[in-house]
Amino acid sequence: MWPDNRHQAAVLRLLRDGGPRSRAELVDAVGLSRSKLAVEIDRLIDRGLVDTAGPAASRGGRRSSVIRIAAATRFLGIDIGATTLDLAVTDGEMRVLGRVTERTDLRKGPTAVISQALEMVNKLRVETGTPRFTGAGVGIPGPVSFREGMPVSPPFMPGWHRFPVRETLAAELSCPVLVDNDVNIMALGEMHSGIARSFEDFLFVKIGAGIGCGIVAAGEVYRGATGSAGDIGHTSVDPHGPVCVCGNTGCLEAFFGGAALTRDALAAARSGRSPHLADRLRESGAVTPVDVSTAAADGDPFAMSMVRDGARRVGQVLAGLVSFFNPGLIVIGGGVAGIGHALLAEIRSVVYRSSLPLATGDMPIALSEMGDEAGLVGAARMISDHICHDQGTPALRPA
Amino acid sequence: MWPDNRHQAAVLRLLRDGGPRSRAELVDAVGLSRSKLAVEIDRLIDRGLVDTAGPAASRGGRRSSVIRIAAATRFLGIDIGATTLDLAVTDGEMRVLGRVTERTDLRKGPTAVISQALEMVNKLRVETGTPRFTGAGVGIPGPVSFREGMPVSPPFMPGWHRFPVRETLAAELSCPVLVDNDVNIMALGEMHSGIARSFEDFLFVKIGAGIGCGIVAAGEVYRGATGSAGDIGHTSVDPHGPVCVCGNTGCLEAFFGGAALTRDALAAARSGRSPHLADRLRESGAVTPVDVSTAAADGDPFAMSMVRDGARRVGQVLAGLVSFFNPGLIVIGGGVAGIGHALLAEIRSVVYRSSLPLATGDMPIALSEMGDEAGLVGAARMISDHICHDQGTPALRPA
Predict the structure, then answer these.
(1) Residue B356 has pLDDT above 80, yes or no
(2) Cα gap B209→A173, rounded to integer Å
(3) I need a labelling partner for B390 at 20 to 30 A (CA). Which of B41, B202, B352, B354 fits?
């Protein structure tokens, strides 16, 4: 089911990213002769990876037909969040055909959560008429050994350490599976159909319960020597700051992760410094980062200062990364990104002021517009990339 | 003079990095059939890129002969420093055959400096018996547009902004030329024959007049979206720190660059806080970063505290980069690296304490052992990489 060589892989990627094309267009794009390309396309058709479409095909004129990714292609994206399971089925061009979301609790352990996911998969199979999946991609909210397809010491996920998520799902689904952390798949989603579509080198920064960064270099996710690249939540931003769960002091997450926001919001509600948050605490018995976002949007001065302070510290870390990595774009996503433009304005202000002009000249900093769908599309794209590479290229040797 | 295809390119890289090999060994390594490989090797021989060596060749037995990079292959490495011109000629395996160093002053402008370099090239031609160069690599101590082969707004180099260094040298030398900043070529040198030889993802940190970082990802120099990646000297380490030449406050270089060390050493000498530096100032009328190094090595407490403070700030920046980039190795080089183990110990202490265990688990931090030669070997390696890629691969489209 894999392409035999790099020409076949190139055809698959062109059709996936650009949609159906005539054979003539493919000849131009792939750079093979018409007759050699015809051989490769026939092989792809024989193996069910592409098929013919459009009026030319119905007249039986194979040479003038339009080629597309096989209509039966189905990818499964599984985005495992701290409190939700989010699944989608896409076609071969990563268009979402069906989607289902349920609440979950990762503390139930991997077997229970995966069992719940498999029941959701069955619903999606029926809903989208999918007998079998071409491949599945999985995102996990914690450190992952991409090579081994398993979580490694994920915080707040008892029982998941070194659980063979990839092997378990590959056996249950009878298709190739890849597992990565949630931030990396969100970055891939943005690259496939979001704001990063035309960028080769960019950063996707997720600000949610934790703060992480997906790194895309030369159009591929960069995972680092041991797979932990992008872990920016524990960068020190103030040696005199609060103690972090990791044991160091003044980490970015200790100021602006979901837990830090909840802690500060609760204190502000109790002390009455934020009337808006105090009301919220009285009404519902708790305050959340979403309440901070709402309060800031409503003009509550203390909530606004919380957002500005947090955004300034995020900007401080990103300014250093911009000088170091020189990305073409920074995308901000994750739950806290819902705070929107107040957050963005402050991050921009710090980064553009503190980084070197050479690096920031044309570099946009933008909010993700894909929301939850980034992870699902990215998970599908990850496994599609894996399948669209021929055996000689590095993507088949996950590191 | 370029290889025709990726098989030829693979043969060239194998011979360059591993030395001469028999045809049988090449069949195993390249993965072509014996007869197909013979065709590619014959083409490489016809075009003067490889030749036969060893006893098998002298008996005329081509099929059992040993193949090597053509003995006539000659690369030129030009390392332009702030006050020195350093040139070397290497063979096809990057072994230095001849080397010449002269003092220069970049403020004389590019025409005068390049003219001086070309006279040095003529000396080297005679010394090494080199009629023509296969290619030349050039390192420049400032920001470079790699794609255009020219410096961009380099500080302290009047007249060099957008001077066509690559085109000028390519015309004068009649060979392919590539130009990059000095830190990137030093990183390549370490990868070719230094401590980074077996690493695919590592950082080379140069601490000299400025502080910069060469980034190697998946065995290639990563230059970023606009070519300025690795500029870590202007990362803010203390918002209340001294004003930097770049206009911001508290940049790493404002604490520990050559200029900052000279400034602090002079103050310490004048105030008498450092008896060693005061002696030095009296004797020679000036103090330099080298004097700080010597004073620290001699146990002068104030000089030792200067080194520790600077190293701590370097470590602080590197700790964040380790979490972000997850390198397999960090190499410390450049003039200030001559301070040696006191510097290294403090950097290690901060990085290992502040970065996450997953990222630092097996990551060594080491001093460069190549010294000045890193840049020369790296410059030769850069142009060799360019030539060893076939037309279909990204390296021929410098970005």
Answers:
(1) no
(2) 58
(3) B202
Residue A260 CA: distances (Å) to CA of A231, A284, B323: 17, 19, 20
How many CB contacts within 8 angstroms connect chain A with chain B?
139
Q: pLDDT value at position B226?
A: 86
Candidate from A246, A356, A394 with C-beta closest to B231: A356
- Residue B392, pLDDT > 80, answer no
- Mean pLDDT for B212-232 is 92
Distance between CA atoms of residues A143 and A246, nearest Å: 14
Least trusted range by pLDDT, from A32-41, A331-340, B144-153: A331-340
A213: chain B residues, CB-CB within 8 Å = 324
Q: What backbone phi and psi angles, to 5 degrees, belong to A329?
A: -165, 145
Residue ranges of domains in chain A: 6-69, 75-190+377-396, 195-369
Average pLDDT on B229-234 reads: 92
**Inter-chain CB proximity A359 and B234 less than 8 Å:** no
> B236 and A153 in contact by Cβ < 8 A?
no
The pLDDT value given to residue B55: 54
What pLDDT is recorded for position A238?
85
Give B359: exposed, middle or buried? Use CB within 10 Å, 0-12, 13-18, 19+: buried
Instruction: Write down the CATH number for the domain with range B75-189+374-396.
Output: 3.30.420.40
Q: So what's the pLDDT on residue A396?
A: 33
Distance of CA A61 to the CA centre of its chain: 41
Q: Per-residue confidence at B390, pLDDT binned at 50, 70, 90?
A: low
Q: Both tokens of residue A261?
A: 């926001």
Question: Which residues does chain A have within 8 Å of residue B218's beta carbon, measured at their own beta carbons?
Answer: 222, 394
Architecture of the CATH domain A75-190+377-396? 2-Layer Sandwich (3.30)
- pLDDT at B7 > cutoff 90: no
With contacts defined as CB-CB under 8 Å, which chain B residues touch A361? Answer: 226
Mutation test of the interface with chain A: which of B226, B237, B362, choosing the one with the most A Cβ atoms within 10 A?
B226
Domain A195-369 has CATH 3.30.420.40: yes
Q: Do domains B75-189+374-396 and B195-369 have the same CATH topology?
A: yes
Ramachandran bin of B365, using left for φ above 0, alpha for ψ from -120 to 50, beta for the remaining angles: beta
Q: Which helix (H) or strand (E) covers residue A378, if one does?
A: helix A373-387
For residues A303-332, give the mean pLDDT.
93
| Partners of residue A222 in chain B, C-beta under 8 Å | 217-218, 325
CA distance B162 to B148: 9
Nearest to A226 among B153, B321, B361 (CB): B361
B325 → closest Cβ in A201, A229, A328: A229
**Predicted pLDDT at B398:** 35
Q: Closest to B324 (Cβ–Cβ): which among A143, A152, A232?
A: A232
pLDDT in tens, A34-91: 888 889 999 999 988 999 886 554 444 445 689 999 999 999 999 999 889 999 999 9
- Cα R_g (chain B), whole angstroms: 23
CATH of A6-69, one of 1.10.10.10, 1.20.272.10, 3.40.50.1100, 3.20.20.70: 1.10.10.10
Pair A207, A336: CB distance under 8 Å: yes
Residue B142: partners with Cβ closer than 8 Å, 6 or more residues away? B151, B153, B154, B155, B156, B157, B160, B181
Considering only alpha carbons, which residue of chain B is nearest residue A238? B238
